């Protein structure tokens, strides 16, 4: 998996990079088909913003989060991403099982 972390008006330190990488590993464990992830961390006035685009087979999942603290924004973003990945995985799982049931009834 390719991971790209960039900062707009903020320096991406090793501590932030390790924090984001650790949190993303938790999400990626749910789903094997992740090809790449692009994370953008930015600061606008006093608002810290974290956004991620996760490229999976057949879809791109985009999540963003704002907070006064960068680490809190990253945590919120990861929680949202986790929910969306689980939802996407469940949807694909249901569709594949529906197709198998349909094939079994035709036989």
Architecture overview:
There is one protein chain. The protein is an alpha+beta fold and 107 residues long. It has one domain (2-106): Double Stranded RNA Binding Domain (2-Layer Sandwich), CATH 3.30.160.100. It is built from 2 helices and 4 strands; from the N terminus they run E-H-E-E-E-H. It has helices spanning 14-28, 70-106; strands at 2-8, 34-44, 47-56, 59-67. It has a 4-stranded mixed beta sheet with strand order 1-2-3-4, with helices on one face. A hairpin with a 2-residue loop joins strand 2 and strand 3. Helix 1 (14-28) packs parallel to helix 2. The model has no long low-confidence stretch (mean pLDDT 87).
């Amino acid at each position: 998996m390719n991971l790209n972390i960039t900062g707009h008006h903020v320096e991406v330190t090793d501590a932030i990079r390790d924090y984001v990488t650790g949190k993303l590993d938790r999400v990626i464990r749910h789903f094997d088909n992740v090809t790449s992830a692009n994370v953008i961390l930015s600061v606008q006035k006093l608002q810290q913003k974290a956004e991620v685009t996760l490229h999976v087979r057949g879809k791109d999942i985009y999540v963003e989060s704002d907070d006064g603290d960068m680490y809190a924004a990253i945590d919120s973003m990861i929680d949202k991403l986790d929910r969306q990945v689980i939802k996407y995985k469940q949807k694909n799982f249901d569709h594949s099982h529906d197709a198998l049931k349909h094939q079994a009834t035709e036989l």
